[in-house]
Amino acid sequence: xxxxFVIFDYDGVIVDSLELALKAATEAASAVGVERVVSAxxxxxxxxxxxxxxxRHIGIPEARIDDFMASxxxxxxxxxxLVEVFAGMPELLRGxxxxxxxxxxxxxxxxxxxxxxxxxxxxxxxxxxxxxxxxGAKAEKIAGAAKQLDMDQERVxxxxxxxxxxxxxxxxxxxxxxxxxxxxxxxxxxxxxPDAIFDEPGAIMDFFNSR
Length: 211
Known about the structure:
Elements: E1 5-9, E2 15-16, H1 18-31, H2 40-45, H3 51-57, H4 65-78, E3 84-85, H5 89-97, E4 101-105, H6 110-120, E5 128-130, H7 138-148, E6 156-160, H8 163-171, E7 175-179, H9 186-191, E8 196-198, H10 201-209
Parallel strand pairs: 1-4, 1-6, 4-5, 6-7, 7-8
Antiparallel strand pairs: 2-3
Helix pairs in contact: 1-4, 3-4, 5-10
């Protein structure tokens, strides 16, 4: 079996952080003077699912986006203990790590992600964490991590729950995989034509075992 490099988005793929993210965005908006209850529909309608673009979508003035982020990201870090890993994801990550390289790429910061991985005993399954505190678009980070691990594009898979994950994976020239238990709907994901789409984590393990 050829070793693959499997890169997972974090929020909405590995962890069920939707409610926490909505609360964080609502609180951060209020902190910069925008009284707006952020909803799941706000995330569903985004073309680029990042927290700064969510801020723009809900009416945060461009001049206050940095302040919005400065409130939102620490909120997520402080309350990271509230998020749960999706059922089946620990087994998937550990199983993949036995034969492949596994990474996480995220709009959350590395420290926030590491804290949850350590809590769940998953830190040894992850080779690389590419958080929002590392500059660059997802496509750039994907390409850079693949080069660092000497992985050609044919062996790299981007796994995400948003249309922007799929677009960034394609922009990086790698295979794309969508999951339907996250922040955007199956209909939106299907329209982006990922290479594969899955409704539960175990099917991803079966997919890689068959290749």
